[in-house]
Amino acid sequence: MTKTVVITGANRGIGLELVKRYLADENWHVIAACRAPDKAVELKQMIGSSSKRLSMVALDVVDSASVLRLQQELDGATIDVLINNAGIFNDRDSQFGALDYDKWMESFNVNVLGPMRVAEALEKPLMRAKAPKIVTISSQMGALNRNATGSFAYRSSKAAVNKAMQTLANQLEDTKAIVTLFHPGWVQTDMGGSNAEITPSESADGLFKTIAGLTKADSGKFLKWNGDVHPW
């Protein structure tokens, strides 16, 4: 039986690689969500060779109206996996004494409220699945046990989404839903940079395999792309 995965921020980086990895398994239908589908050239090219297993939808995770349209479009669907991948790293060089608080608010809106908006909007389609999985791509930069400086907005937003999703896991403890956070690795993307440790395809392959093996016991955990537990 074909399963359905919704991937946000699917037009580039890890999101795009996740689309490719799920399409490589004929058991999956992929709904690729991004802000501007018309400009998602690579995704559009993939549709023709996907045997109708790939569809694109417009989604801006900070726009409540856009999220509502997604909710309406998928109202009668069954979603097995939601991957909250859309994110922003807008304060890479920020330092105390010259902080941009507008960027900080933008970071929280995208990285924290965005995944929660989408998860809440797709609750009904997710709960139709036998073992629905709500996966959020976080970062080791949000782990409180890591000592670091700079990037206040990004680090704090990832710590916040970790806590929000852990709380959601507790909220859904008595349901069949599995809510899990992932550090995708230090990945060679626009966000991770060319000196990063692993390729997007390596990250996506690890995420795909680990997500497939998630059980209820993993709900509320913070994991690495390879399945190892990440310290909070």
TrEMBL record:
Pfam families: adh_short
Domain of life: Bacteria
Signal peptide: none
Gene3D superfamilies xref list: NAD(P)-binding Rossmann-like Domain (3.40.50.720)
Family recorded in the similarity comment: Belongs to the short-chain dehydrogenases/reductases (SDR) family.
PANTHER family (alphabetical): SHORT CHAIN DEHYDROGENASE, SHORT-CHAIN DEHYDROGENASE/REDUCTASE SDR
Protein name as catalogued: SDR family oxidoreductase
Source organism (scientific name): Maritalea mediterranea
Taxonomy of the source species: Bacteria, Pseudomonadati, Pseudomonadota, Alphaproteobacteria, Hyphomicrobiales
